[in-house]
Design a protein that fits this description.
Strand order of the largest sheet: 6-5-4-7-8-9-10
Largest sheet: 7 strands, mixed
Keywords: Ligase
Pfam families: LuxE
Shape: globular
Organism: Streptomyces luteosporeus
Number of helices: 10
GO molecular function: ligase activity
Order of helices and strands: HHHEHEEHEHEEHEHEHEEEEEEEH
Protein name: Long-chain-fatty-acid--CoA ligase
Distance between the termini: 47 Å
Radius of gyration: 20 Å
Strand content: 15-25%
């Protein structure tokens, strides 16, 4: 076992007899394997997942009986917003290994519960993708700048959990947080971020910048406004963004322009800057390839649904993002329609070596009072521009 990364270690499904295909699917080591064999295995795993939840969740059982045959992989649709209003488990509460929420300190939150298998298998998926990209470096320390919430007692936000977990893939020399815990909440510290970057630029350890893109952009803008010269962060530095620009749409910068500014001001090349997509309701990792496309890994399937009829849409059309994976055993969230708009493209429409379909995230659908982690974090930026 890799001593710095135990998340590649084997993990067993709760019931090996009932979930044999789920185990086999999640044990696949190539994150982007694709072909008839993988499709057949995925379908078998979805059948096992649906049977698992139908036996253990009265909610899912009734939904499955009413709509199963109409949906891909015979999986009824559940909207992510459902989990903001209901706690629906397919396990006993004493089997809950982790409880995470999707939003800030107020507003509606998705309450998601994970057993040991579910959270560890999701973590192993992330580890597989990091391993494939050469980002697991147990023998090389790195400095971390986390554009996320500094850990605090009772903090259960999924983004904070994820960013701290990503620090497992390389030993930390120093860790700095952009959203500092003040005792009564969290505050964005742009000057602390600038000081950390300046200090890291003088070190020989690579830097890993993780978290909300809006805060990194605000740091770059503040550096420019202060007349600070560009920095050259050490070779091997990596930027891994996630959470979107929710709450800061008026400040959002196009991806190409944003990445160019990171390269200009921090010296990190474009191929070492990656965006991600994920949610507490669907913990499958979607991480950009070197061409900045969000390819679906082997453990999930992606569909786009009409905003009017919820019917599947063809490649290139914009609709609701529908994410499917049989990995989850704790909550019937194996087929989730997100409150996000996206468009799907075939794998061969990307110039990278990956063959799985990829999607472009087009932002949140409509206007809602529901607050994601990024929305809650964005409110900390008010008055700082």
């Amino acid at each position: 076992m890799n001593p710095i990364n135990p998340h590649l270690a084997p993990v067993a499904v709760p019931d090996p007899a009932a979930l044999a295909a789920v185990q086999q699917l999640c044990d696949l080591t190539d994150p982007y394997a694709t072909g008839p064999a993988e499709d057949e295995l995925f379908a078998a795993a979805m059948a096992e997942s649906n049977a698992w939840h139908a036996e253990r969740s009265p909610f899912f059982r009734s939904l499955y009986a009413a709509t199963a045959a109409e949906q891909p992989f015979h999986a009824p649709l559940v909207h992510a917003n459902f989990f903001k209003r209901h706690e629906v488990l397919s396990i006993d509460r004493d089997a809950v290994d982790l409880h995470l929420t999707s939003s800030g300190t107020t507003g509606q939150k998705s309450q998601m519960f994970f057993d040991n298998w579910t959270i560890r298998s999701a973590q192993r998926m992330v580890a597989r993708i990091f391993e494939r990209n050469g980002w697991i470096t147990p023998d090389q320390q790195v400095n971390y700048l986390l554009y996320s919430y500094q850990p605090a007692p009772d903090l259960k936000l999924g983004t904070s959990f994820t960013d701290n977990y990503l620090c497992d893939f390389a030993p930390a020399r120093q860790v700095e947080y952009a959203l500092r815990h003040t005792g009564g909440g969290h505050e964005f510290d742009p000057f602390g971020c600038i000081a950390a970057l300046q200090r890291f630029a003088q070190d020989d350890a690579p830097v890993r910048i993780l978290g909300f893109p809006a805060f990194l952009w605000f740091t770059l803008e503040r550096m420019r406004a202060m007349g600070l010269p560009p920095l050259q962060l050490p070779e091997g530095s990596l930027v891994m963004l996630g959470g979107g620009w929710k709450g800061n749409a008026d400040r959002q910068i196009g991806k190409d322009a944003f990445y160019a500014r990171v390269t200009e001001q921090l010296g990190i090349p474009s191929e070492r800057i990656r965006d991600t997509f994920g949610s507490v309701e669907h913990c499958i990792p979607y991480i950009e390839c070197e061409q900045h496309r969000l390819h679906a890994p082997v453990w999930s399937r992606v569909f786009i649904r009409s905003t009017r009829t919820l019917e599947p849409l063809p490649y290139g059309e914009v609709g609701y993002l529908h994410l499917v994976s049989p990995y989850i055993t704790s909550v019937p969230a194996q087929s989730v329609v997100m409150g996000d708009l996206a468009e799907l493209h075939p794998g061969d429409a990307c110039a990278c070596e990956l063959d799985t379909p990829w999607f472009i995230h087009r932002g949140r659908a409509g206007v809602s009072r529901n607050r994601s982690c990024a929305v809650a974090a964005a409110e900390l930026m008010k008055g700082l521009s």
